[in-house]
Design brief:
The complex is a heterodimer of chains A (322) and B (592).
Chain A: H1 2-29, H2 45-54, H3 61-73, H4 87-122, H5 127-141, H6 144-158, H7 178-216, H8 219-226, H9 231-268, H10 274-283, H11 287-315
Helix pairs in contact in A: 1-11, 4-5, 4-7, 4-9, 4-11, 5-7, 6-7, 6-9, 7-9, 8-9, 9-10, 9-11, 10-11
Chain B: E1 8-10, E2 54-59, H1 74-83, E3 88-92, E4 96-100, E5 103-108, E6 114-119, H2 133-144, E7 166-169, E8 172-176, H3 183-191, H4 198-201, E9 224-230, E10 234-239, E11 255-260, H5 264-273, E12 278-282, H6 284-293, E13 297-312, H7 317-327, H8 345-353, H9 357-364, E14 374-376, H10 400-409, E15 422-423, E16 426-427, E17 429-435, H11 439-454, E18 458-464, H12 466-474, E19 480-487, H13 494-497, H14 513-523, H15 528-545, E20 548-561
Parallel strand pairs in B: 2-11, 17-18, 17-19
Antiparallel strand pairs in B: 1-19, 3-4, 5-6, 6-8, 7-8, 9-10, 10-11, 12-20, 13-19, 13-20, 14-20, 15-16
Helix pairs in contact in B: 8-10, 14-15
Chain lengths: 322, 592
């Protein structure tokens, strides 16, 4: 197992390098640079030149690429041109927020997807099954940003029960008790995590349904029923554990979509995470931040897949990596 | 308090098209919601029994840098303006005027080359250090230092080196100018920024000043203090208990929270559900609904701040690019091949006549109830600068028949019968570039395209990403462009209209010797009334040449919850004199 993980990690190196190179080329191909924002019509050309020199933008792209790569290899993300702060600090502020949102989203995906899929499988071809199928399809087809806006409209304006932006209440948070603060955090998580997760949950429900249906027909389930176990025990304890196997793999693979979806959803819900940071960095052409963000995202995806592999072996003891 | 003033700033739509970039711009007579409300006799905080309530303002983006001499964003400006007192208090009534603030008085010498300020003796930084002339001299020294690369460097261009300013004593400074210039502009250059605390930044590395801790935790001398800053979430201001200035500056609000919400739709939704009390940049299409459904939200107009225009590039794009690549800024414009269509002012005038600009205003900037948020433009000087704006310019009429006839008189006809005018076998066809992410301009482009088609002119629309758009404008890599400016409140027409090579914002390569001479004359004229007459001539000459088809000035709509009194939303700021805003005791929403 350990050797397998090391091998996977080593294989990730060219992947990360490839992604960074691609992003660097794309940023280079776009006109202008982060220093444009420093200039007004009155800015003398010599000031422009000085600022460009300061950020090394007067160097050829190849030199800057090599410097960027060298810095990344040594864990130095450089300084943001836009914020003039170490990129590491900026990412350290945003990354935990994205991880919190991603974690909540995965919970929603898992809970909603697995529950609905299981209900559908147990009640195959019933009205419930068909209703959930159609509803799932609708949610599955919805772009996350649109769903986000609709959720805001419904639950923050028409029926104002949930906050529509930020991580905490902007006014009252500082005056809350610890318990109230925890509830406040949770309330702020529901809409963005829902917007990010519901579409994926709908997909998972489809997978779960077919996976559980397949398992339910197998001999060991029949045996369990023959032993006189309750239907609930048969489904939850025996069938579901096996049916979950492919689902875990899918969730690992969903991480990249989760991150890309967060780019829009975090902006809509003013969630100060990596997605919003990337949007800002791209608009301001803040190359060091863009590259560092993609570096971190790529690493997260690699790690997410590794975790899926590990979970796979935990859930199914027959699987061994060597 | 300080107001950041820039002569003119490019309005880059897309990332911030609907949001002001600076505390500058035009205002004007409006038939809609009123503009400024403060009666000038606001109750003092002691009359109210202390500060109360919290105001939540929605910001599109977080602040970046709170050291004013390197700051640039609108968010920075709003925060800095409340943390510091200004040297003078800027007012606007047709033109900028100045009242004493940190300066208890200011005087010009007889030949108008020296501006002397006498400072109050009761202003202190929050650590108790007195504010002094040394801080002012230090600030200008930083601005002048190329290592700092301050965007305010143009402020010192017309000041005498070594005397910018001259420190006479700890409470007296004198700014020496190289020759008499326009007084309003020069005074703005000395006063429209928050000064840096010398005793804090004395030993700071100047090359990395933008990364200095001061930007996150600045020394302050104004009515508010920075109580909390959660990056990308909120900035909280509270009354500065160490404020030593006059009582009239002491805030009446207990807290002001600037909540960072990047999305327009979310900001608007929170204004509607009451989570937010203040929001700028409300779209015309939303104004009627907000007014009808939310009587608790007052809508204010700032005035004519934003200009949209069509730029006609005088040069052949390919030839200019090729020659510019070789010669750079030394390029002799007379060697560049002119554009086959737009080099001729008569063609440009005909094109303007073919576009029904009033219809554009009606379609794009008028609400369903008939409220007009657009005003026809004839120059880059906003009508708000009513002493400078040339009201005598008669806009070219919408006359498609006349326009076509004028083009035919210039040799255009439809020889090949394809419905498109042509001359010498070449169709009257061109590409107009505009930027993505701006729905208003996208619609305007299509309407303009239809008008031009009616007279036999074929216009293709090219929509490009904002950064690309800006870069191509600067490199003059376009044929025609639909773009915009955010106007300023002091006048310097050189940046856009002077033909000198250093003016890279002269996107159309406009060159008119008479205009160049007038601009230099205007800049060097110390008498504002005389300068205004010169600027009017410049506007008339430019309008005659039509290097732009000037479209419209656009108003900015700001929504504020009705419980706030003495709200000042005006041309200088959508949140002016925040320290005077207050809430009656029986309407307080947040009692903590």
């Amino acid at each position: 197992m350990f050797a397998y993980l090391i091998r996977k990690l080593l294989l990730a190196i060219p992947l990360v390098l490839g992604v960074i190179t691609l992003i660097f080329v794309l940023v280079e191909l776009s006109p202008g640079d982060a220093t444009d924002r420093f200039f007004t019509p009155e800015t003398p050309p010599e000031v422009r030149q000085l600022i460009e020199q300061k950020w090394g933008l007067d160097q050829p792209a190849s030199t800057r690429y090599l410097i960027t790569m060298k810095n990344l290899m040594t864990g130095d993300f450089g300084r943001s041109i836009f914020q003039e702060r170490p990129v590491f600090d900026i990412i350290a502020e945003a990354l935990p927020n994205t991880i919190i949102l991603s974690f909540a989203t995965i919970l929603i995906i898992q809970f909603v997807g697995v529950t609905l899929g299981s209900i559908q499988a147990v009640r195959q071809y019933s009205l419930t099954d068909n209703t959930i199928s159609v509803t799932s399809l609708i949610f599955y087809s919805m772009p996350s940003f649109w769903l986000a806006l609709m959720l805001q409209l419904l639950f923050a304006l028409k029926w104002p029960v949930l906050p529509s932006s930020g991580m905490t209440d902007a006014v009252m948070y500082d005056y809350m008790t610890t318990w109230e603060k925890a509830v406040d955090h949770l309330k702020h998580l529901i809409l963005p995590a829902g917007a990010l997760g519901l579409a994926s949950a709908a997909g998972i429900a489809r997978y779960m349904r077919s996976s559980l249906l397949e398992v339910i027909r197998q001999d060991f389930v029949r045996t369990a029923r023959a032993k006189g176990l309750s239907e609930r025990t048969v489904v939850v304890k025996h069938a579901m554990r096996n049916a979950l196997l492919p689902i875990i793999t899918i969730i690992g693979l969903q991480l990249p979509f989760l991150f890309s979806g967060s780019v829009l959803v975090e902006s809509i819900f003013a969630w100060p995470g990596m997605g919003r940071l990337i949007v800002q960095a791209i608009f301001t052409q803040d190359t060091p931040v863009i590259i560092a963000c993609f570096f971190v995202f790529t690493l997260l995806v690699v790690i997410g897949n590794l975790i899926a592999d590990i979970l796979y072996s935990v859930v199914d003891p027959r699987i061994r990596y060597g | 308090m300080t107001l950041k003033l820039a002569p003119i700033a490019l309005l880059l739509a897309g990332c911030g098209a609907e949001t002001p970039t600076d505390a500058t711009g035009p205002t004007g007579p409006t038939d809609g919601p009123t503009t400024s409300q403060g009666p000038g006799n606001e109750p003092l905080v002691d009359d109210l029994g202390g500060p109360r309530d919290t105001m939540v303002a929605a910001f599109q983006s977080d602040a970046d840098m709170l050291l004013d001499l390197v700051s640039q964003s609108a968010s920075d400006g709003y925060i800095i303006g409340n943390l510091n007192l200004g040297l003078v208090d800027s007012q606007f009534d047709c033109e900028l005027t100045y009242e004493p603030e940190i300066a208890e008085s200011f005087t010009w010498n007889e030949d108008q080359t020296v501006l002397t300020y006498k400072l109050r003796d009761d202003i202190k930084w929050d650590d108790g250090t007195p504010f002094s002339a040394t801080d002012m001299a230090f600030t200008f020294d930083l601005i002048a230092d190329p290592l700092v690369a301050s965007p305010r460097i143009s402020f010192i261009e017309r000041m005498v080196e070594g005397q910018r300013p001259e420190v006479i004593d700890e409470r007296t400074v004198a700014f020496h100018f190289t020759q008499p210039y326009d007084r309003i502009t020069m005074q703005a250059h000395t006063s429209s920024l928050a000064f840096a605390a010398e005793h804090v930044l004395r030993d700071a590395d100047r090359a990395t000043l933008r990364g200095h801790e001061y930007n996150r935790n600045p020394a302050i001398n104004g009515p508010f203090k920075l109580a909390q800053w959660v990056p990308d979430q909120k900035i909280v201001l509270e009354p500065n208990e160490n404020f030593t200035g006059p009582d009239r500056y002491k805030p009446r609000l207990k807290r002001v929270i600037f909540k960072i919400i990047p999305e327009y739709a979310t900001r608007l939704l929170e204004l509607e559900n009451g989570a937010v009390d203040w929001m700028e940049g409300i779209l015309v299409s939303d104004a009627d609904r907000i007014a009808a459904e939310h009587p608790e939200i007052e809508l204010y107009r700032r005035g004519w701040r934003f200009l949209d225009y069509l730029a006609w590039n005088r040069f052949d794009t390919a030839d200019f690019q090729e020659k510019y690549e070789d010669a750079g800024k030394d390029l002799d414009w007379s060697t560049v091949q002119e554009h086959h269509l737009f080099a001729d002012p008569a063609v440009r005038r005909a094109l303007t006549k073919a576009i029904d600009i009033d219809k554009l205003i009606g379609d794009l900037l008028t609400s369903e109830s008939g409220e007009a948020y657009g005003n026809r433009a004839v120059s880059t000087i906003t009508p708000t600068l009513c002493n400078t704006h040339n009201n005598d310019i008669t806009p070219l009429p919408f006359d498609p028949t006349g326009a076509r006839a004028e083009l035919e008189a210039l040799g255009f006809g439809d020889a090949d019968g394809n419905g498109i005018l042509d001359r010498d076998g070449q169709d009257f066809s061109f590409t107009m570039m505009t930027n993505s992410g701006n729905a208003r301009r996208a619609k305007a482009a299509v309407i303009i395209q239809a008008f031009l088609k009616d007279i036999g002119v074929q216009m293709e629309i090219e929509t490009v990403e904002s950064n690309t758009f800006f870069e191509r404008l600067r490199k003059k890599d376009y044929e025609a462009a639909l773009s915009g400016w955010s106007a300023g409140l002091f006048v310097d027409m050189s940046t856009i209209w002077h033909s000198g090579q250093e003016y890279e914002f002269n996107f159309t390569s406009y060159a008119n010797d008479e205009v160049d001479a007038l601009i230099e004359q205007g800049l060097n004229e110390p008498d504002t009334a005389k300068a205004n007459e010169i600027w009017k001539k410049v506007q008339a000459a430019i309008y005659e040449d039509q290097p732009y088809t000037f479209l419209y000035w656009r108003d900015d709509i700001v929504g504020v919850h009705e419980r706030f009194n003495d709200v000042k939303v005006d041309i200088l700021s959508p949140m002016n004199d925040l320290h005077t805003w207050w809430v009656p005791a029986n309407e307080v929403k947040y009692d903590k």
